[in-house]
Q: What sequence folds into this?
């Protein structure tokens, strides 16, 4: 798991630290941008991407079928 939180943060600060760019999310999770980026960009045009880094930190890197990632 990627661990972005080294200390407890309150929920307001976690929500203010968002990932909004699909490319950044894929890079952080070490996922193939060649296969996934076009679909992620199309989806983000209809639904704005807003993923707290704390949530991304609970995802498994290199796993495109991670259950938490699939919720995004």
A:
């Amino acid at each position: 798991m990627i661990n972005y939180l080294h200390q407890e943060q309150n929920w307001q600060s976690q929500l203010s630290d968002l990932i909004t760019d699909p490319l950044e999310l894929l890079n952080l999770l070490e996922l193939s941008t060649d296969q996934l980026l076009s679909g992620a960009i199309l989806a983000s045009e209809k639904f704005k991407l807003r993923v707290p880094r704390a949530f991304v930190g609970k995802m498994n890197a290199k796993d495109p079928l991670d259950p938490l990632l699939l919720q995004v």
